[in-house]
Amino acid sequence: MPRALPGYVEVLPGELERLDQWAAALNDKQVVVHMAARAHVLSESESPEQVLETFRRVNRDATLALAAESARRGVKRFVFISSIGVCGNLSGARAFDEQRAVEPVTPYAISKFEAEEGLRELAARTGMELVIIRPSLVYAADAPGNFALLLRLVRSRVPLPFGRVDNKRSLIAVESLAEFIAACVEHPAAAGESFVIADEESISTRDMVRELARGMGFKARLLPVPVALLRLAASLLGRRKMYEQLCEDLWIDTRKAAQMLGWHPSLGIHEGLRRAGASYAKMENARY
């Protein structure tokens, strides 16, 4: 999120499970935007059941405790940052929207969906307004995870095998997500609603690489490898999940946000990716 925030915004970092340490800060607050979550489990020794419970403890249980305390202290609106993973891992030919049945697959997505369900029940019981936001992959020069890996690969100038990957992926620039959260904090029509959100255009992995490279100041080197061959190689190497993330479709229909809130991102995806690439290159150059 942007480093400079308006004076009326108070950021409360902390251990989410230790509500007693900072619950008093909820006094006299009108809106709580809840972004904290566990995204990864670091222990490889945990069973699938233990992994799911680890996610639930933070993403579901601690979230509901925070929301209940917020309602008790008079918070008017609770804005919950969920995940597009609640809708599913892949969209296929039809874009995800708010009407499509949810299909969470990963423990992270399951815990987020269960938090959504619990929050709806709490909001109905207490009268606190609830807004749920399901963002697509958030990108920035300092983004973690898969986007950070892609930035490193592009900057290495190694030829990448995505020349024939013409899929549809939805992303959202961190600046655009911040703008949308602000709209959900303030807009009366957001109360009681859920939104899937992304930049208005989808983009292929091939063009994503091209735009990042342009931002870094060079032309991407893309090999025209058939997608079927990439799929076969991924299956043989046990990297099916990586193949899906890079070559399959996950795109979002954001018309509800536009129609209900009048929201449109101020930054287009092509310009946003070029900026992210340029900022990343500048950061890396400063390190050496």
List keywords for this structure.
288 residues, alpha/beta, two-stranded parallel ribbon, 9% strand, NAD(P)-bd_dom_sf
What can you see in these coordinates?
The protein has about 290 residues and is of the alpha/beta class. The protein has a domain of about 140 residues: NAD(P)-binding Rossmann-like Domain (Rossmann fold, 3-Layer(aba) Sandwich), CATH 3.40.50. Helix content is about 45%, strand content about 10%. The strands form 2 sheets. It has a 4-stranded parallel sheet, with helices on both faces. Helix 5 packs across helix 9. The radius of gyration is 20 Å and the shape is globular.
- Low confidence ranges: none
Order of helices and strands: EHEHEEHEHEHHHHH
The separation of the N and C termini measures: 26 Å
* Main sheet: strand order: 1-2-3-6
Mean pLDDT comes to: 91
How many β-strand stretches?
6
Name the CATH superfamily classification of the domain at 1-135.
NAD(P)-binding Rossmann-like Domain
Number of helices: 9
Strand coverage percent? 5-15%
Q: Report the CATH architecture of the domain at 1-135.
A: 3-Layer(aba) Sandwich
Summarize the biggest pleated sheet.
4 strands, parallel
Which structural category do the helix and sheet elements fall into?
alpha/beta
What name does CATH use for the topology of the domain at 1-135?
Rossmann fold
- Overall body shape: globular
Radius of gyration: 20 Å
Helix coverage percent: 40-55%
Q: Tell me, what is the CATH class of the domain at 1-135?
A: Alpha Beta
